[in-house]
Amino acid sequence: MTVATTNARAAYGRSVAPVRTNRTLEYDLLARCTQGLSTAWTRRKEDFSGLATALTENLQLWSALAADVAEAGNGLPASLRAQLFYLYEFTAGHTSAVLDNRGSVEVLVDINTAVMRGLRGEGGGT
User: Fold this and answer.
1) Is residue 11 part of a domain?
2) What's the CA angle centered on 120, arms 116 and 121, to 5 degrees?
3) Domain range spanning residue 70?
4) What is the chain's pLDDT, residue by residue, as a tens digit (126 residues)?
5) The pTM of the whole model exceeds 0.90
6) d(CA 63, CA 15)
């Protein structure tokens, strides 16, 4: 193989890293937070601070999503934006309930999982 051929393959060959879209980034962040919540919940008696950290990270993600859907230039339909903002508000309230030992992370995991399905195009319709 010549140097020119090697250089051409390097320049025009398939990219090693897949193209990351906003949807895939959001999906990955939700998946990471969801896994963190599940793991922290099973270890909550030995590691409450780990649970608090997982809840905080999940709430920070939802805060960022809420800020994004509240922007005037957001391209999502208004009804979807309103639903996502409501999920943020619910998540914030339920996070406090979990920290006060008045709830579990199950509903937060369910919300994240449902949104992840939507991001993958697996809508929740019957």
Assistant:
1) no
2) 115
3) 21-119
4) 555 555 555 556 555 556 668 789 999 999 999 999 999 999 999 999 999 999 999 999 999 999 999 999 999 999 999 999 999 999 999 999 999 999 999 999 999 999 999 999 876 544
5) no
6) 33
Q: What is the DSSP string of 62-125?
A: HHHHHHHHHSTT--S-HHHHHHHHHHHHHHHHHHHHHHTTS--SHHHHHHHHHHHHHHTT----
DSSP-derived letter for residue 13 is S
- Which pair of tokens denotes residue 38? 């599940």
**CA-to-CA dists, residue 98 to 30, 55, 111, angstroms:** 19, 8, 15
Q: What's phi and psi for 43, nearest 5 deg?
A: -105, 15
Count of domains observed in the chain = 1
